[in-house]
Design a protein that fits this description.
It is a single chain. With 286 residues, this protein is mainly alpha-helical. It contains eleven helices and two strands; from the N terminus they run ααααββααααααα. The protein has a two-stranded antiparallel sheet. The longest helix has 31 residues. The N and C termini lie far apart (47 Å).
Length: 286
């Protein structure tokens, strides 16, 4: 029994990691209607930045903060210089952000090389918890805790703050929000920076779990897109549920059906789309 508890907790931990990156992606899609295929590159960048800061003898927590700030600032720069010019142009968004993925990935190869690396678990969390006759790393419980805290923050921002009200209104009627004197462009920049920062955060937290390797940006982007499709565009709640489902199915699938784990994930997406084409929490488009 304890081995199943450990695997369930592992699935939830990976699910929370997927939630952190998918939530930023779905918010950008839902609020700005921007197809940001470079989102996985922000995840990669966050991981490698943290690795660099730690190599320069910064502690894990400072490296985490700096990596999130740098990725968010980079998000602001990209939104202001590039994304800002192609709102409402889906094809251009796809081509631009897809190209940015290659640029950032190749820059990472040039700067950090192609060898697989990893980020050490911070000393404070370098311990294990005994579950029956099994042990479970404390760091994975920390990732679960961070994911739950982030979900609570998103709920509070959406339901209890003026910023959340503006964002919800912007999703439904962007022109009306602008007519009320609200700087929609500034809101969009903030949303894009927030999404990039969340990708950077998940990249740093994912470093000790999945390591750093060439192509990780593409792998995490595919998974996060599946989470977004299952959860519904623009819904962080849907991303939360979808990410946990994907984390559990992926983890348990590797135990029971190791060669079919990703196929099961895609089958889940197909089943959800057949039942609810808009996703679990997506809005029906009339």
């Amino acid at each position: 029994m304890s081995i199943y508890i450990v695997q369930l907790l592992t699935g939830v931990a990976y699910g929370m990691l997927y939630f952190m990156i998918a939530a930023g992606l779905t918010i950008i899609l839902g609020v700005m209607n921007v197809v940001n295929l470079a989102h996985g590159a922000f995840f990669l960048l966050g991981t490698y930045l943290a690795f660099t800061f730690i190599s320069l003898h910064f502690n894990f927590w400072l490296a985490l903060l700096l990596s999130v700030v740098v990725t968010a600032v980079l998000g602001i720069i990209i939104e202001k210089l590039l994304i800002n010019k192609i709102y409402g142009k889906e094809l251009e968004q796809v081509l631009l952000t897809f190209g940015l993925t290659f640029v950032i990935a190749d820059a990472a190869k040039w700067i950090w090389g192609t060898e697989m690396q990893t980020i050490a678990v911070p000393e404070l969390l370098n311990a294990s918890i005994t579950i029956g006759d099994m042990v479970f790393p404390a760091y994975r419980l920390f990732v679960v805790l961070v994911g739950c805290i982030l979900a609570a923050i998103l709920w509070y921002l959406e339901s209890k703050t003026r910023v959340g009200a503006i964002i919800r209104a912007g999703v439904d009627d962007r022109a009306m929000v602008a007519a009320l004197g609200i700087n929609v462009r500034l809101v969009f920049t903030g949303v894009f920076a927030f999404g990039a920062g969340m990708a950077g955060l998940s990249g740093v937290l994912g470093g000790p779990l999945i390591g750093m390797y060439t192509g990780m940006d593409s792998d995490i982007l595919v998974t996060s897109l599946i989470v977004v499709v299952i959860g519904g565009l623009g819904s962080w709640k849907g991303s939360f549920i979808g990410a946990i489902l994907i984390g559990l199915i992926e983890t348990l699938g590797k135990i029971w059906f190791p060669s079919l784990s990703m196929l099961i994930v895609f089958l889940l997406m197909v089943v959800v789309l057949m039942i609810r084409p808009q996703g679990l929490y997506g809005k029906v488009v009339s």
